[in-house]
Specification:
The chain is mostly beta strands and 251 residues long. It has strands at residues 4-5, 10-11, 16-17, 22-23, 28-29, 34-35, 40-41, 46-47, 52-53, 58-61, 81-82, 87-88, 93-95, 98-100, 105-106, 111-112, 116-118, 123-124, 129-130, 134-136, 141-142, 147-148, 153-154, 159-160, 165-166, 186-187, 192-193, 198-199, 204-205, 210-211, 216-217, 225-229, 232-237. It is built from no helices and 33 strands.
Length: 251
């Protein structure tokens, strides 16, 4: 046997399954999908039409809870849902309890945890990690090796450059008090974060604001302002021709 498809799984017309792949119980896969080699699709996962999943990827993985975990609650989660015409690259991991919209691209080596939603047409770049309990809007771009901490919320059209780091723990792993105060970051619609920037726990980036490359955001970034430095401070307005409302994009 060069692949395993459980007898309860449903495969749409024209869908193909690669060598050594495993499709679990009560999985539903739409029509015209291409599932690569050595792919594991866990029980109950729902995959839309015309989805491509590349080699060595895992979809619907159950969360693991370490004894010392501060953000994984161990509660049961629903199956993963992958929207129509999405593309998931090689060696990616998409957990159970994750819902991807339509036309989402998840690049090679990315990891998307449980209780995460990703909006339509969003790009999750190579090696990106989105931790649990996050909401990612539509038409976002999360570029290579960026890290979205647990309990974060990103609006539509957010741009996160490579190597951006976010955090949700002001106590840096010490004292029981920290369990009361976990809070991720919030990035408003059209917010842009430059390469290598750091956003500290609970901080927000306003709509259409820009955090310059290499900056450390220790206080909220006002809407439509460019902030820069360590700590980051507002330096000027975002130019009018760069505002979302002036791009002529149809959302």
């Amino acid at each position: 046997m060069d692949r395993y498809v459980d007898g309860t799984a449903e495969l749409g017309e024209g869908t193909t399954i690669g060598y050594f792949s495993v499709v679990g119980r009560e999985v539903r896969i739409g029509s015209g999908c291409v599932i690569g080699n050595n792919v594991v699709i866990h029980d109950g996962t729902v995959i839309g039409n015309s989805v491509r999943i590349d080699d060595n990827t895992v979809v619907g993985k159950l969360p693991m809870k370490a004894a010392m975990s501060a953000t994984t609650d161990g509660a049961s989660v629903p199956p993963a849902i992958i929207g129509d015409e999405s593309l998931i690259g090689a060696c990616a991991v998409v957990y159970a309890g994750c819902e991807l919209g339509r036309h989402v691209l998840v690049a090679d080596l990315a990891s998307i945890r449980e209780n995460v939603t990703v909006g339509d047409f969003t790009i999750v770049g190579r090696g990106v990690t989105i931790e649990n309990h996050c909401s990612i809007g539509r038409r976002c771009k999360l570029e290579s090796e960026s890290y979205i901490t647990a309990y974060s919320e990103l609006g539509d059209r957010v741009f996160v450059a490579p190597g951006v780091a976010t955090s949700n723990d002001n106590f840096i792993g010490r004292t029981e008090e920290r369990f009361k105060h976990f809070k991720g970051v919030t990035i408003g619609k059209g917010g842009r974060i430059g390469v290598g920037a750091v956003i500290l726990p609970g901080k927000s980036v306003g709509d259409d604001a820009v955090v310059a490359a290499g900056s450390v955001l220790t206080s909220d970034a006002p809407a439509r302002k460019i902030v820069m430095g360590s700590p980051a401070k507002p330096i000027r307005d975002v130019p009018e021709d760069q505002l979302l409302e002036n791009q002529g994009w149809d959302d």
